[in-house]
Design goal:
By secondary structure, the chain is mostly helical. It has a domain of 168 residues: Alpha Horseshoe (Serine Threonine Protein Phosphatase 5, Tetratricopeptide repeat). 76% of the residues lie in helices and 0% in strands. It contains 35 helices and no strands. Helix 1 crosses helix 13 and helix 11 packs antiparallel against helix 12. The two termini are 21 Å apart.
């Protein structure tokens, strides 16, 4: 069961039916020939049967109702009550038969519909239950109890929007227990809709109705965790864990402490010392490891995973997770040993991929390449393993070999934007800007979120000695038009239009260039590049005072830029300020000695790309 499913059930609670007995309570109030409610006559058969059910004497109720229906077979209220009695006795098939008999006579009898839905729900037939309760809700003209039960079934079917609509406008029941169930249901629906704050609010309302209920307090703490209200979650969970040593409360408290960066070690030690069965300890240790890893506590998670492995050493997934935690904690030799142990239990592509990462970090490049190749051989159709192998080759400047791997991957996955991105960057690192541009354009067309590909495409165009590629400029400017608040894309479009027109000596698009660059300055006020580019554009347009202001800001925000100081010096010289010119020329000379060469810039781009492609890879470890 996933963490979300556990939390959802904890919030919803154990209630399988919100109005169990609802049909029993109103069945005898329904007129046999109409839907108007009437109180059953005191002393009559229905009254006697209802009294027997209230005392828990189901068999007596069945006997009374069965005898009565022999002569009053069309009394729907009696038959519904008999069906409810059968359901109470666990005789669901006979209960269904009675309800269906009522519905053959009166298809819109909402009591029978609701009761039949209740039976279906209790037996796990949720789709059938939902259909019956939807019909009952309509036939009853929106009876609150039926709408609430319907919403519960919809929530259990994960139809949260429909459940929200079913609950719309309903007030919580007046009785505290009914109110608690109602608020828990609303909380579970809010959680399913991705609104943890609303879920926490509903749980707080439920807790206010019964503040001494530990199970309710724990569910509320869990809801507060989801809304990242760490302090409130900790306040609720701490007394539960202190007094009862409930591991579930301890896990909530631990996660809250991790979330607010508080001291969690005492809670962790108390959880570790809990007296549990082997099966319970295995579950607890895994959950502890998950929480610690989620908050970057890889070293602390190792002990939990070791304990889990000692409980069940044949579990390959536990060995893998241990190796992964050790790797992320930087304990490379331990990680290699654990991964080898895991391999002894059975090899797979994911394990070989992890072994490749471990060996690369250990500096054994040949072993890493062999592991990545083994991962590809074990899962030849999975993109991420071919990407891992290609990344390894790129990391060590084996660009031609990387191209071969990626071309093979492209044949298998022609719609993969990651592969096209990697091919584009390999071409760039190998010095072929034209091919790099072609692949990156294709990657941006395939990607659901094209920003990574477009960023690299733009950077390559900015670095070109020749004018930027027209198709690249059109793509980047088109995207910036669709994303007017993306300052980076506004900058790229304006800067590339400037580079294109500067090379051609064409000032007909000067207004558009200035508009886009000015927009990027406004959206990225602390970034040097937009100011630098604005300074260049104004200088080109001979708008010297504006060029001076932007260039001064550029040099101030990027004092290590030799280009910024050189251009500012030129402006000072033009404006007749020799002292400022000399000062900027000295800064230019000093910065020139520190400037990175082209290879160093490509190396920096390579590091960024390697991080990006591994981060963006599907199922990234």
């Amino acid at each position: 069961m996933t963490g979300f499913a556990i939390l959802w059930r904890l919030i919803l609670g154990a209630s399988a039916s919100l109005f169990f007995g609802f049909s029993l309570a109103i069945a005898t109030q329904q007129n046999p020939s109409a839907s108007q409610a009437q109180k059953p006559p005191s002393g009559g058969p229905l009254w006697e049967a209802q009294s027997s059910l209230a005392r828990g004497n189901v068999a007596e109720a069945i006997r009374i109702l069965s005898g009565y229906l022999q002569t009053h077979g069309r009394d729907s209220a009696a038959r519904v009550l008999l069906g409810q009695a059968y359901a109470s006795a666990g005789q669901n098939e006979r209960a269904e038969e009675e309800f269906h008999t009522v519905l053959r006579i009166a298809p819109d009898n909402y009591v029978a519909l609701a009761a039949l839905g209740e039976v279906y729900e209790g037996t796990g037939q949720l789709e059938k239950a939902e259909a019956m309760l939807a019909h009952a809700a309509k036939a009853s003209k929106g009876a609150p109890q039926i709408r609430t039960e319907w919403a519960l079934v919809l929530a259990r079917l994960h139809k949260y929007q429909e459940a929200q609509r079913a609950l719309a406008g309903l007030s919580p029941p007046a009785d505290p227990e009914g109110g608690i169930v109602f608020h828990r249901l609303k909380a579970s629906v809010a959680l399913g809709l991705g609104n943890p704050r609303a879920a926490a609010s509903e749980m707080e309302k439920a807790l206010a109705l019964k503040s001494t209920d530990p199970e309710l307090a724990l569910a509320t703490a869990a809801a507060e965790l989801q809304s990242e209200n760490w302090q409130r979650a900790a306040r609720l969970a701490e007394p539960l864990f202190s007094h009862m040593r409930d591991p579930q409360a301890g896990l909530v408290l631990l996660e809250a402490q991790l979330g607010m960066h508080a001291d969690f070690l005492q809670t962790l030690e108390l959880l570790r010392s809990a007296q549990l069965t082997s099966a319970e300890e295995l579950v607890l240790r895994q959950r502890l490891a998950e929480l610690l890893i989620a908050h970057g506590k890889f070293s602390e998670s190792i002990e939990e995973l070791k304990a889990a492995v000692s409980v069940d050493p044949r579990r390959a997934d536990l060995q893998f997770n241990l190796a992964l935690a050790q790797f992320r904690a930087g304990r490379l030799d331990d990680a290699l040993e654990s991964a080898d142990t895991c391999k002894g239990l059975g090899d797979n592509a994911e394990l070989e991929d992890l072994l490749g990462d471990i060996q690369e970090s250990r500096g054994d490049n040949l072993a890493a390449a062999r592991n990545y190749q083994a991962a590809v051989a074990l899962a030849p159709n999975e993109e991420k393993y071919r990407l891992s192998l290609a990344v390894e080759l790129i990391r060590h400047n084996s660009f031609e070999a990387a191209k071969i791997v990626l071309k093979q991957a492209e044949e298998l996955q022609p719609k993969s934007w990651r592969i096209e991105l990697a091919l584009g960057m390999v071409e760039f690192f190998a010095g072929t800007d034209e091919e790099a541009t072609r692949f990156l354009l294709h990657a941006s067309e395939l990607a659901p979120q094209p920003e990574p590909a477009l960023k690299y495409l733009a950077d390559i165009q900015m670095d070109r000695v020749s004018a930027p590629d027209p198709a690249a400029v059109a793509k980047l400017c088109g995207y910036s038009d669709r994303q007017p608040h993306d300052g980076q894309m506004q900058f790229y479009c304006g800067a590339l239009l400037f580079r294109r027109d500067y090379a051609a000596g064409d000032k007909t698009h000067a207004a558009e260039i200035v508009r886009r660059l000015r927009a990027s300055v406004g959206l990225l006020p602390t970034y040097a590049s937009p100011h630098c580019q604005m300074g260049r554009a104004y200088r080109w347009l001979e708008r010297w005072q504006e060029a001076l202001g932007e260039s001064e800001t550029c040099a101030r925000q990027d004092p290590d830029s030799a280009d910024a100081h050189y251009r500012l010096a030129q402006i000072y010289q033009h404006m007749g300020q020799p002292q400022q010119w000399q000062k900027e020329m000295k800064l230019y000379v000093a910065a020139s000695k520190r400037i990175a060469d082209e290879n160093a810039r490509r190396d920096a781009t390579m590091k960024t790309f390697l991080y990006t492609i591994q981060k963006e890879a599907p199922n990234h470890k």
